[in-house]
Amino acid sequence: MRLIMLGAPGAGKGTQAARVAAQLSIPHISTGDIFRANLKNGTELGLKAKEYMDAGKLVPDELTCDLVADRLQQSDCGGGFILDGFPRTIPQAEALDKVLEKLGVSIDYAVDIDVPDEAIVNRMSGRRACVGCGATYHIAFNPPKVEGVCDKCGAKLILRDDDKPETVQTRLSVYHDQTQPLIDFYKKKDKLVQVDGTMPMDDVFAAILNVIGK
Ligand code: AP5
Ligand code: MG
Ligand code: ZN
Asked: What is the pLDDT of residues 69-112, one digit of tens each?
């Protein structure tokens, strides 16, 4: 199964993509996680991406598309994959189409997780992210077993730099300008499925499995 997760920042793409990936045994590919891992390792890509991420802006397509193209050609993607946070612009979606065409495959579904802006701002201030493995928690809706410590790897949990309220506002307006048009893009291709992302996490997960026929 080849899936794309669409949705505003904080809609729950990462939370759900991780669960769907585990359920279907396919890799979870998050461009945000790849950029954060690069930053942690001090690579040139990570340092370049940080400028944009901290400002709530998109990392330029030329830094993003090749990275995903390389990743999709790795052998673990042969049986499918789930893309989280890519594509985020029409040019990225067109670049993805080209890569998939070259590989002789196509997307099964683009899953849009729909959450209104008001709910997003509340969610982001409670999010905590693991500095070790990138796992995501929420202090009220999905707390770790031990406060401030990742259940999966034991590393520290932090508030992401780009989750400050003013940066979240910028990310939301960037989403409406540049990413929301992808909903129509995939609707026209007859690939779009939508779920209500304001439900509890387990219900969102069940709804996703239902719309992708799993
Ligand atoms: P990225 O890391 O992709 O961030 P994002 O899209 O802004 O989305 P988030 O990760 O913030 O939210 P999410 O939808 O994954 O929600 P989550 O599951 O964590 O990108 C960061 C930056 O990198 C971008 O701003 C950009 O600069 C750059 N970038 C990345 N990809 C790029 C690309 N393709 N092109 C250009 N630039 C790119 O959930 C959020 C919170 O809500 C969590 O605390 C969670 O526990 C909680 N939650 C989840 N579901 C529920 C629920 N149902 N009920 C209650 N709480 C919930
Ligand atoms: Mg995410
Ligand atoms: Zn961790």
From this structure: 999 999 999 999 999 999 999 999 999 999 999 999 999 999 99
Whether the model clears a pTM of 0.85, i.e. scores above it, the answer is yes
Host domain of residue 69: 2-119+170-211
CATH assignment at residue 55: 3.40.50.300
Average pLDDT over residues 35-40: 94
pLDDT at 190: 98
In this structure, are residues 27 and 77 in contact, taking their beta carbons and an 8 Å threshold?
yes
Which residue's C-alpha comes closest to atom 40 of ligand 1? 10
88 among known catalytic residues:
yes
Establish if 130 belongs to a structural domain. Answer: no
Is residue 160 flagged as an active site residue?
Answer: yes
Q: Is 123 a catalytic residue?
A: no
With b for 16 or more beta-carbon neighbours within 10 A and e for fewer, the 147-186 pattern comes to: eeebeeeeeebeebebbeeebbeebbebbeebbeebbebb
DSSP label at 155? P
Q: Is pLDDT at 164 greater than 90 in this prediction?
A: no
Q: From the CA of 124, give the closest atom in ligand 1.
A: 41
Give the residue-averaged pLDDT of 42-57: 96
The protein residue with its alpha carbon nearest to ligand 1, atom 53, reads 201
List all residues 6 or more positions away from 28 whose beta carbon is below 8 Å from its beta carbon.
17, 18, 20, 21, 81, 82, 84
